[in-house]
Structures are given as structure tokens and as C-alpha cells.
Design goal:
The complex is a heterodimer of chains A (212) and B (213). Chain A is built from 6 helices and 9 strands, in the order E-E-E-H-E-E-H-E-H-H-H-E-H-E-E. With 212 residues, chain A is an alpha/beta fold. In chain A, strand 1 and strand 2 form a beta hairpin. In chain A, helix 3 packs parallel to helix 5. Chain B has 11 helices and no strands. The chains are: A alpha/beta (212), B mainly alpha (213).
């Protein structure tokens, strides 16, 4: 397994306070995620799962505490990591209703500077609807389409916000397989989920203290 | 920088399919075309009022083309994807604003010679050039305000009220581009647009970051 490792990114959170809408939703969040590890953020709605992912992605700032990315032994520049090494799958996924599936994939490929493999849509089970407009897709199909980004460019850290919601059995199996393969290659997975976990993953339980 | 071509293609496609450009063009053409009914048939009066009238109508018409410039990407995580790339957010927003100019302002520039000549104005091409130099400034200002109001309900109304005072330089010097000595108004319109270009993408990017946090 070690020979297959390609990614060396690790993530270290120390005593982080997570805010949302001016309120503290989680306090003293600390964890380390090393290459090949997965961490599932569990907790009820409103407990700050997504907010933690957003802080790691750099969309919202944290109050106290620190986030550190390391590339091997060296400390990595968070800006560089966020520009090149993070995948976000969150449900919206920038899917514009007025584009077709093909246009969407072509846009992502151009954005990441790669070219999609010809059977990419077959791999995610969308081969039949490549000229359909995204607005006509079902929820599950939209999430399958979002998964194509994981194939298009390889990035070390995956931030997944409820990635299994709305998926049927085969899509769920595909997602879990992708996650497992990614971890074998040394990739990191952080997943916010209120119901399902991942095999061989660490779990961080978030309570709902901030709510009355 | 890789990816810029793809971003431009996506934004242009979405903008042209959105139909906001047709609303701007239609409003401008219809209001300008019907104004003579209110002004009356005196040719001298029509020719004298046309520059000011068309500038005001164009400014209002282009504003409705800036509705919803960022909403979809804010709601559906389009900006989430964009921000996890090396492309600066302000550059992405500059592309969005420029595409909105192509959609909502360029058609106005293109039909302005026809409208100016219908009103009996002599310096028709000066008027079109004035529009070409000045409307980018209006577009960048509208784009920045649209970003500031992006998470408001009825944001469009807010944009209109906030934008009109900021359009004042265009109302003063825009119509002056049809005068007999247009050089200074031309330069001022160009400076107006360049200044908006230098500031507005950064203001809008800061606003979008705030909306996302």
C-alpha cells in the first residue's frame, strides 16, 4: 500500500472555535488527519459540521485556534493548498441549470486544465443524459455529475458535505469506492454526515450545545 | 493562467441564455422609441433632448440586466468551486462583469446610432462612441452594487437607488460627448470607466467573500 501513496498532505486543527451567523456552534475542535485517513464529522443539524469544512476551505474565518496544512514534514501555505489540493462536494457544486451535462464537464475540465476521459460519464452512470440540461436532472443524477470532478483532477484533501444524501445504492457504492481508493493513495477525506459513517474512519462527534 | 477561457465560455453561455440582455435592449428601444410621443413633434426639441434622454434611459435599462449576476453561483456553490482554484476571485468577477456588459450594454451601444439619428441628432457616431466609452463604467458600478446586494430580497430595487447617484458623472459628461468639442467628455468617460474597472471587481469580490462567510 505504501508504494501507491501519492499524497503527503496532512491537516492539523488546534482548539478551533467555529462560528456561524455570529454564534459559536462548536468549541475547541482539535484533530489531526494524516495521509490516508478519513474523519467523519457527526452530529445533529446545526452542530457545525459544514461550518468546520468551510473554515478548512477558507470560506469563513475562525476566531481562536489554528489550522495547519503540512506537506510531508514541511508546513504548507494554506492559500496554495486551497487553490490546488482541495475538492469540495457539497450538493450545490456550482451546477448551473442552464448548462448541459457535457458543457458542465467541459467547463470543469478547462477550469482544472485537464481533459476528461471519454468514458467519464459512464463511470458515474450518466452516459445516457450527456446532452440533458442540468436543470432536468434528478437530485441523485446531479450528485453523480458532481462526482465527475473527483475524476477530473486529483487533489489530496476531499471535503465532503453529506456526500451520500440522495444517492441510490450503486452511486453510494461508487462514492465509497472512490473514497477508499483515494485513501489508499494517501488522500485525506473529511466528511460531514448526520447518519452514515465510513469504514475504518475516525469520528468526531459534535454536540449541539450552542442551541438552547 | 489556465482555465480563464473555460470560465469566460461558461459565464457567456449562462448570461446569454438568461435573457437579461433582451430585457435591457427591449426596455431601451421601447422607451426611447416612445419618448417622442411625450415630447411632441418639434424637431429641434427632439434633437436637443436626445443626448440627455438616451443616456438616462440607457443607464436605467442596463441596470435591469445586472439582476441576479451572482445569485446562482452564491446559492449553488459555484463560487465554492471557483475559490478552490488558483484564479483570483476578483478576476472571476471581472469576467462576470465584462460578460454582463457584453450582454446588457453592447446591444445598447449598437442600436444607439439608429436612435440618435431617429431623433435627428447630427453627431450620431460621437454619441455611439460616448456610449462605448462610458457604459463599461456603468456596468462595473452596477456589478459591484449587485454583489453588495446579492443576498438581499428585492436587491434589484436597492441596486437602482444606489446606482443612480454613482452614475452622475455619466449623466453630466455622457450627453456632452455629442457636443461640437467632444474630446474632453470622451476622455472623462474613458477615465470614469477605467476608474470603475480598477475598483469595482475588488469591491465585488470582498462582498462575495462576506456573503460566503
Amino acid at each position: 500500500m505504501a508504494s501507491m501513496q501519492q499524497f503527503q498532505l496532512s491537516l492539523h486543527l488546534r482548539d478551533l472555535d467555529i462560528h456561524r451567523g455570529g454564534q459559536v456552534v462548536a468549541e475547541n475542535v482539535s484533530f489531526d488527519a494524516l495521509p490516508g485517513e478519513a474523519l467523519v464529522l457527526r452530529g445533529p443539524n446545526g452542530s457545525g459540521k459544514t461550518s468546520i469544512l468551510r473554515v478548512i476551505a477558507g470560506f469563513s474565518s475562525s476566531g481562536i485556534g489554528s489550522i495547519e496544512f503540512q506537506q510531508g514534514e514541511a508546513i504548507a501555505d494554506p492559500g496554495e493548498v486551497r487553490a490546488h489540493a482541495i475538492h469540495w462536494i457539497g450538493g450545490g457544486d456550482g451546477l448551473a441549470d442552464r448548462l448541459t451535462v457535457n458543457q458542465c464537464v467541459a467547463f470543469w475540465a478547462g477550469l482544472y486544465g485537464t481533459s476528461p476521459s471519454p468514458n467519464l460519464l459512464v463511470q458515474v452512470g450518466l452516459a445516457s443524459g450527456s446532452d440533458q440540461f442540468v436543470g432536468e436532472l434528478s437530485l441523485g443524477q446531479r450528485r453523480r455529475l458532481a462526482m465527475t470532478r473527483l475524476f477530473l483532477t486529483r487533489r489530496a484533501l476531499w471535503l465532503l458535505d453529506e456526500p451520500l444524501g440522495g444517492l441510490d445504492h450503486s452511486a453510494k457504492a461508487l462514492m465509497l469506492k472512490l473514497i477508499a481508493t483515494h485513501r489508499q493513495e494517501g488522500g485525506l477525506v473529511l466528511m460531514a454526515s448526520h447518519e452514515e459513517g465510513l469504514p475504518h474512519a475516525k469520528t468526531l462527534h459534535l454536540s449541539n450545545e450552542a442551541q438552547i | 493562467m489556465k482555465g480563464l477561457g473555460s470560465i469566460l465560455r461558461r459565464e457567456l453561455r449562462l448570461r446569454l441564455k438568461g435573457g437579461a440582455w433582451a430585457a435591457s435592449l427591449g426596455l431601451f428601444a421601447v422607451t426611447a422609441g416612445l419618448s417622442p410621443l411625450a415630447l411632441g413633434p418639434q424637431e429641434a426639441l427632439l434633437a436637443a433632448t436626445a443626448p440627455a434622454l438616451l443616456w438616462v434611459l440607457a443607464s436605467l435599462s442596463l441596470l435591469i440586466g445586472f439582476e441576479g449576476l451572482y445569485e446562482e453561483d452564491l446559492k449553488k456553490e459555484g463560487f465554492t468551486i471557483y475559490r478552490l482554484t488558483p484564479v483570483p476571485l476578483s478576476l472571476i468577477i471581472l469576467i462576470k462583469m465584462s460578460v454582463a456588459w457584453v450582454g446588457s450594454c453592447l446591444p445598447l451601444v449598437l442600436i444607439s446610432p439608429a436612435l440618435f439619428s431617429a431623433f435627428g441628432v447630427e453627431n450620431v457616431w460621437q454619441g455611439a462612441l460616448g456610449f462605448l466609452l462610458g457604459t463599461p463604467g456603468l456596468a462595473f458600478i452596477s456589478g459591484a452594487l449587485s454583489a453588495l446586494c446579492a443576498s438581499l430580497k428585492r436587491g434589484t430595487v436597492m441596486i437602482v437607488f444606489l446606482a443612480i447617484p454613482l452614475f452622475a458623472p455619466a449623466f453630466v459628461f455622457g450627453p456632452a460627448t455629442l457636443s461640437d468639442s467632444p474630446l474632453v467628455p470622451f476622455l472623462i468617460m474613458a477615465i470614469f470607466s477605467l476608474q470603475a474597472l480598477a475598483l469595482c471587481p475588488f469591491i465585488a469580490a470582498a462582498a462575495i467573500r462576506t456573503h460566503m462567510s
